[in-house]
Amino acid sequence: MRSTVRFVLPPELEAAAPPEMRGLRRDHVRLLLLDRDTGAVQHHRFDELPLLLAPGDLVVVNDSRTLPASLLGRTTGGSALEVRLAARAAPGGVRGTPKGCPGGSAGGVRGTPGGCPGGSGGVRAGTGVTRLRIGPGHRLLAVDGLLTGLHEPEASHLDLLGAFVDPEVLGRAYTAALDAGYLWHEFGDVCLVLGESAELPQRIAIP
């Protein structure tokens, strides 16, 4: 199922070039802060991120990359399908990630089997591959916030965000981003989803 978060993205809000080409430093892109508990949004810049985190917060950076290749095709139901090639897999194969289609992997936050032993919320180091798909209804064990880009209408990435915030709340936040002129896609602005709304005012006390 495609995400229920639907909106119209004006062409002028699609970032077609890196921030530097728009006269900005890379860390000066805008940051939409979304309180997933209350739905409140606030507007910041990416370089203010350290001021939005609480002491002791652990930030995990996803530095995985896909291969510079993709395959185009159709599902058994006839819908258009793009598969991003993610990594080489022995012997002589590759792993792929469906993009922007029903059932597609959301990406962004991934876990590995055994990464949270016993469902305790603890994390242990390891390597491996998982078929875990994170989306609405998924019970988060070790992650309570997410820094992500702004995703196109009905993109499967929005399903991933559905594990962190109710789709209706996310839809209102995206409306606020549209109204404020945020830029979408890889070269655009970002969204930070945090919980624990009672602590949020202290986190964003920016001098």
Structure description:
By secondary structure, this protein is of the alpha+beta class. It folds into two domains: 11-62 and 108-203, QueA-like (3-Layer(aba) Sandwich), CATH 3.40.1780; 63-101, no CATH class. 13% of the residues lie in helices and 20% in strands. It has four helices and seven strands, in the order ββαββββααβα. The chain has helices at residues 49-52, 157-161, 167-179, 200-203; strands at 30-35, 41-45, 70-74, 80-89, 93-99, 146-149, 190-194. The chain has a four-stranded mixed β-sheet, covered by helices on one side. A hairpin with a 5-residue loop joins strand 3 (70-74) and strand 4 (80-89). The longest helix has 13 residues, at 167-179. Residues 102-115 and 197-207 have low confidence and may be disordered.
Uncertain segments? 102-115, 197-207
CA(first)-CA(last) distance: 44 Å
Average of pLDDT = 78
Q: What is the number of independent domains? A: 2
Architecture per CATH nomenclature, i.e. the level-2 architecture of the largest domain: 3-Layer(aba) Sandwich
User: How many E-type strands?
Assistant: 7
State the strand order across the main sheet: 2-1-7-6
So what's the CATH class of the largest domain?
A: Alpha Beta
The radius of gyration computed from the alpha-carbon positions, rounded to a whole number of angstroms, is 18 Å
Helix content: 10-25%
CATH homologous superfamily placement of the largest domain: QueA-like
Order of helices and strands: EEHEEEEHHEH
What fraction of the residues are assigned to beta strands by DSSP? 15-25%
CATH topology of the largest domain: QueA-like
- What is the molecular shape? globular
